[in-house]
Specification:
This is GLPGLI family protein. InterPro entries: GLPGLI. It holds the Pfam family PNGase_F-II_N. By secondary structure, this protein is mainly β. The protein has 2 domains: 188 residues, outer membrane lipoprotein receptor (LolB), chain A (Clam), CATH 2.50.20; 198 residues, outer membrane lipoprotein receptor (LolB), chain A. The chain has 3 helices and 28 strands. Strands 15, 16, 17, 18, 19, 20, 21, 22, 23, 24, 25, 26, 27 and 28 form a 14-stranded mixed sheet that branches. A hairpin with a 2-residue loop joins β15 and β16.
C-alpha cells in the first residue's frame, strides 16, 4: 500500500527539480513599453514599441500602423489623412559580443541587416533629474549619426539598455528626446516578471556595417543619377541621418602579373612573373593607382632595370590629364600628359567577377591589344593604369604585346565602397623633380646608355 505514495513523492520531486532548474537557468527579463512620438510619421497617436532585455541580450520591437506617405491628402476638415500600413521593425542587442543588429533603412537597399558596436555612444552626464513611472532618473546627452539627444536613465534599475539602439548608461533608459522634438521615446510601463525567450529573426550572419551599407547606398544612388543624367541629392529622414550628396569612393585591389612564351630546344615554354598587387582608389573624376608594398620583399616589383615607379599614378578624368611619378637613373621625374581617346569596341559577352556582372570590351592599338572587362554596377569610367573610357569601372584587363610574346594580366581581387570623401595623392614638383610628357620621356630614354 505504500508504493503509490512513493511513486507520487518521486513524481512531485521530479517536478520540483525541473522547476528549480528552470529558475536557475532562466534570465531575468525586463519588459518595457515605450510610446514613440515621431513627427515624421504624420500620425497623431504614439507608435507602440517594446523592449525585452536581459543582462546578455535584448530585443526591441515595433509592430504598429502608420500613415502611408504615398496616399496622403488633406480632407475637408484640413486633416492629413491616408491609408495606414504596418510598421514592423526589430533591433537585437548582443551584450556579450558588444554588437547591435537591426534592419537597415537606406535608400536603394532592401532586406539588409546592419551591425553596430554597442559602445559607439559617447555620453555626457548632466546634473539634472526627474521622475518617470515613479523612478528617479538622471539626465545624459549624446550625438548619434546627425542628431542630438537627451535621455533620462534610472540607476535603480540595473540595466545598460534602452529603446532603439540607445544603451551604455549605468541604468535603464526610460526617456529619449531628440533636440528638435521630432523623435521621442517615453516609457509607459515596466514589468520585471516577464517570461519570454529572446530570439531574433534577423539574418545576423550576413550583417554589414553602417559605413559599408552607406557606401553601397551612395553607389546605387550615384548610378541612378548617372542613368537619369539629372543629379539630385538625397537627405535621409530616418533616426540615423545620412546624405547622398558626395560621389562614391571606391577602392579596388588588383592582382597583376605577366606571362612570357619563349622557345628553347625546339620547344615552347611559358613562364609567369611573380604576382604583385596594385590599388585603384577613385571617385567619379579623380583616381590614384599605387603599388602595394609587400612584407619581406627585397625589391619592389615596380622596378624594371634602372627605371622605377615611385608608386603614384594620378588621373583627372575631367581635365583629361595624368601624372606619373618615376625614378630613372636616380632622378625623380613626373610624367604629365593628356589622355588620348580610347575607341573601345563593346561586345555582348558577359562574365562574373567578385559578384559583379562584367562585360567585355576591346581595343586594338599599334603595339598591343587590350581586352577589358567592366561592370556598369559601378558607373565610374575608370580603370587600372591608363585604362578608362568605358560605361563602368574596369575590373579585369588582358594586354597582349605585338612585338613580343608577353601578356599582362590585371584582375581585381577585392572591391571596397568607402564612406568618406576621396582625397587623391597628387604628385608635386620640387627642386629635384623634372616634368616631362610622353614624347619628352621617350627622347630622354634614348640618351641613357643601357
Amino acid at each position: 500500500m505504500e508504493l503509490p505514495l512513493i511513486k507520487d513523492h518521486m513524481k512531485y520531486s521530479f517536478i520540483l527539480i525541473l522547476f528549480l532548474l528552470s529558475k536557475l537557468y532562466a534570465q531575468d527579463v525586463i519588459h518595457v513599453k515605450y510610446d514613440l512620438n515621431d513627427t515624421r510619421s504624420l500620425i497623431e497617436k504614439p507608435i507602440k514599441t517594446e523592449l525585452y532585455s536581459t543582462s546578455k541580450e535584448s530585443i526591441f520591437l515595433i509592430n504598429d500602423k502608420i500613415l502611408d506617405k504615398n496616399t496622403l491628402f488633406i480632407n475637408n476638415a484640413s486633416q492629413i489623412v491616408g491609408d495606414t500600413i504596418d510598421y514592423v521593425f526589430e533591433i537585437f542587442k548582443d551584450f556579450n559580443k558588444n554588437k547591435i543588429f537591426s534592419e537597415a533603412h537606406f535608400i536603394n537597399l532592401q532586406n539588409k541587416i546592419q551591425v553596430d558596436d554597442i559602445d559607439s555612444f559617447v555620453w555626457k552626464k548632466i546634473n539634472e533629474s526627474k521622475y518617470i513611472l515613479g523612478y528617479l532618473c538622471k539626465k545624459a546627452i549624446t550625438e548619434f549619426r546627425g542628431r542630438e539627444y537627451e535621455v533620462f536613465y534610472c540607476p535603480e534599475i540595473e540595466s545598460k539598455d534602452g529603446p532603439f539602439k540607445f544603451s551604455g548608461l549605468p541604468g535603464l533608459i526610460l526617456s529619449v528626446v531628440e533636440k528638435n522634438k521630432r523623435i521621442e521615446f517615453v516609457a509607459t510601463s515596466i514589468d520585471f516578471n516577464t517570461q519570454k525567450s529572446i530570439t531574433s529573426n534577423l539574418d545576423i550572419a550576413n550583417a554589414m556595417s553602417w559605413n559599408e551599407l552607406l557606401g553601397r547606398s551612395k553607389l546605387r544612388f550615384w548610378n541612378n543619377q548617372v542613368d537619369l543624367k539629372n543629379p539630385v541629392f538625397y537627405h535621409s529622414d530616418e533616426i540615423e541621418i545620412y546624405d547622398l550628396n558626395i560621389e562614391p569612393y571606391i577602392e579596388i585591389v588588383y592582382d597583376v602579373y605577366s606571362e612570357f612564351t619563349y622557345k628553347e630546344n625546339e620547344k615552347y615554354h611559358k613562364e609567369k612573373t611573380l604576382n604583385s598587387n596594385f590599388m585603384l582608389s577613385c571617385n567619379f573624376s579623380e583616381s590614384n593607382y599605387k603599388y602595394l608594398e609587400r612584407i619581406n620583399n627585397n625589391q619592389s616589383l615596380t622596378e624594371f632595370g634602372r627605371i622605377k615607379s615611385s608608386g603614384t599614378f594620378y588621373k583627372n578624368l575631367l581635365d583629361s590629364v595624368y601624372l606619373n611619378e618615376m625614378e630613372i637613373e636616380g632622378k625623380r621625374i613626373i610624367i604629365k600628359d593628356n589622355f588620348q581617346p580610347i575607341n573601345w569596341e563593346i561586345h555582348e559577352r558577359y562574365d562574373d567577377l567578385l559578384g559583379f556582372k562584367i562585360q567585355k570590351a576591346t581595343i586594338d592599338m599599334q603595339e598591343y591589344s587590350v581586352e577589358a572587362w567592366f561592370t556598369n554596377m559601378i558607373k565610374i569610367s575608370n580603370g587600372p593604369d591608363k585604362l578608362y573610357g568605358l560605361p563602368g569601372i574596369i575590373l579585369k584587363s588582358i594586354t597582349r604585346h605585338k612585338t613580343s610574346d608577353q601578356i599582362d594580366y590585371v584582375i581585381a581581387n577585392n572591391v571596397k565602397l568607402k564612406n568618406e570623401v576621396f582625397k587623391p595623392d597628387i604628385p608635386i614638383k620640387n627642386k629635384r623633380t623634372e616634368i616631362l610628357n610622353e614624347v619628352q620621356l621617350a627622347e630622354f630614354l634614348k640618351t641613357i646608355q643601357w
